[in-house]
Specification:
The protein has one helix and eight strands, in the order E-E-E-E-E-E-E-E-H. 4% of the residues lie in helices and 45% in strands. The strands form two sheets. Strands 1-2-3-4 form a four-stranded antiparallel sheet, with no helix packed on it. Strands 5-6-7-8 form a four-stranded antiparallel sheet, with no helix packed on it.
């Protein structure tokens, strides 16, 4: 397990191999849905949407995937890259 978040009855677990398991905590014995992340690198963190309609997952490569749990909303999934600004003193290190 690389990351986990819970909100109400929704539990999202980021696992090895870019696998994301989603659980309905009213029936915790079984995985409700299992997704392969669209991120190319290992998932570093995951968080549920406040309305429990999906989750955001961040990778070690600086990308974030926005995923909806219901199949009817999957066309709204997208990814973006976070940009980092290097400090001036970091650029001069040898």
């Amino acid at each position: 397990v690389y990351g986990m978040d819970c909100l109400g009855n929704l539990l999202v677990v980021a696992m090895a191999g870019r696998l994301v398991n989603i659980y309905d905590l009213r029936k915790p014995a079984a995985t409700w849905k299992s997704d392969q992340s669209s991120l190319k690198n290992q998932i570093r963190c995951v968080t549920c949407f406040p309305d429990k309609s999906g989750y955001a997952a961040g990778s070690v490569g600086g990308r974030v995937a926005i995923n909806y749990v219901m199949q009817k909303d999957s066309k709204r999934n997208f990814m973006f890259k976070c940009h980092r600004i290097k400090a001036a003193h970091d650029a001069n290190r040898a």
